[in-house]
Amino acid sequence: MSTHPTHLAKPNQIRTALSAYRVMAITAGVALFILIAEMVMKYGLGMDNFLTRNWSYIHGFIYMGYAASVANLGLKSAWSLKRIVLNLLAGFVPVLPWVAEHRVHLETTALLQRVHPAGGPAATAQDGQPA
Question: What is the DSSP letter of 130?
Answer without folding.
Answer: B
